[in-house]
Amino acid sequence: MDLLVLDPTQDPDQDGHISQVTHSHVTPVSPPCFRKEVDSDGICWLTFDTPNASANVWNFATLEEFDRHIEELHRDHEVCALIIRGSKEKVFIAGADLKMVQTLPSEELYELLALGQDVFTHLESLRIPKIAAIHGTCVGGGFEMALACDYRVASKCDSTRIGLPETQLGLIPAWGGSTRLPRLIGLPKALDLIIRGKIMTADQAKRQGLVHEVVPEEHLMSFAKKMALKPMRINAHHFHFTQVWPIPQWLRYHAKSLLTSKHSWMKEVQASPLIAIDVITHGASKSIEESLLLEQGAIRKLADSGMTKSLIETFLRKENASKKLPAPYIHVKPRSITHVAVIGAGVMGSGIAYALACKGTRVLLCDTSPDFIARGVDRINQLFQAGVKNHVLTRKQARESKDRITFTSESVPMKRMDMVIEAIVEEMSVKKQLFADLAMRCRDDTILATNTSALSVMEIAKAVPYPERVVGLHFFNPAHLMPLVEVVQLEKTLPEVVTTMMRFVQSMGKTPILVRDAPGFIVNRILVPYLLGAVKLAVDMRDPWMIDDAMTEFGMPMGPLRLLDEVGFDVALHVEKTLRNAFGDRVPQCSLLSEMMAHGMLGRKNDRGFYSAFQSKNGEQPNPEVLTFLQPKVGSLTKAQIIDQLQGLMQDEAQRCLDDKVAASASDIELAMTLGAGYPPFRHLFPHQT
Question: Hey, what domains does the chain have and what are their CATH numbers?
Fold first, then answer.
């Protein structure tokens, strides 16, 4: 890879350390963001505390102020150690200011990127023990600063999260992370963590070697001081045996081959994971200074790319939607939701109950028979077991969360419930009957929510005497993992109810998108024409699976035929019927799914769909049964033509959603499709508005 190289900006002074860096950017005077205190033992406590902000981030002002303190410490021979800590409740250092990265002119952005690296190198060269006392989020540039310290200790706390997620934003760790982490834990582990952009708990970070110790929050500072007073190797430039030839070269080939086989679209764009692989493996065989220059050359290219700007824009939209309320509801006070009933112990209901319990909500999970409840209990137990196995939950957290769920197959009073979420079969008459019954068993102020994926929420609300307290909460499968929830409001929905639902979804760690009650809402309305359009193309093809190849190369997480298998043909046909009743022939027509279903094919649920052998060691394989239903024509579409047609179907329906005011803005529609359907954020869903 041809990487740009920056000229070194640092030179050792006559005392041998790197002097305070200077840059042409002039930062306006602002209130101090750091507090420096030296205790009686000669330890300097440097506290990052940005005034009037919930998070500490790196920008020109904070980097330059931090560097001034480091320069003072270089010249202060009375200080024997440095402990860096944060003052925010949930954030140590959240990394670089992404809004600045997104909006700065190129030259100023390059200067910011170089400044961060220079400042952390300046920190690393400090000749006293340097300890990062991490409590709260420590990601990106925050953790790169910690890597420049000699010792890292983290609090054993739910809010403590550690990692380098830059590749998720189209960037790479370029303030020393791509250089220091491989030397600390070895190339294979560093490549895996950086490529995936994985953010870990404190315990996971310790197992990976990113931090030295994890201690209870109340002991964090005393432990950090204890370590500061111990003898410690200063500026120990790590060397890991995986840096030795030919390991970096082999890892580069293997990692890139594995990545492009799973994500073929990366071959066509300037994908940051591939560039990260090049920087890390090339830099491993070079000096630290040369490796840092490789980081800077790569980050310059990436920061200017359209893909990176799109990924950052999507991230900021998601952050905004996950924390703030839509403009009309900013000043509407939400109600507290502490007790929730979930009706339906199937896959969706069990997943919703599990997700709620993990976030501290008491849940009553109801169904109509002991057998259904038993299956729901089994599903939830499996989710808890997987959560512990994957280190999402500790055993203690799993036990406590499980204790928050109560099960019943009886029709019990629900006067204690602040909210009821219905997740039963997608049949209007059954849902209306249930809502009429719930209206009698619940308080008049209990919020009733339906998890319908396409049915009219307004029609369901007609079954209760207070439709103003009825909303749609459309979770996506699997409910405990998928980040999107479509919050469906009616014309009569109380503002307090809307605000409560938005905050409720945010408290689950998910992203709510407020939508108007309309067939299919956003995601299904756009997705179904795309899926049916793919089925219609498949009928005429000798190799229908090429459709999936084309769309995964486009950037979708899985092809449309594979997604139909996952959804289930019965569910897909049900949603198709709902949308066809609303939009007529605008929905692509094709009898293939009905014919396959008539022959007993349902998709993954019975291992007979466009694919089969889902549970095999090698994963799902094309199902040759499909070919008996096709009528291939002479000549075939190219992948580019397939992409053009199917992307066009999504773009056309997205524009109609905007015209019909199903959502407040094009950005809401794009975010919903990205989070709910995996639409690649670096592609344009609204090409004429970019």
Answer: 34-304 (3.90.226.10), 335-516 (3.40.50.720), 523-689 (1.10.1040.50)
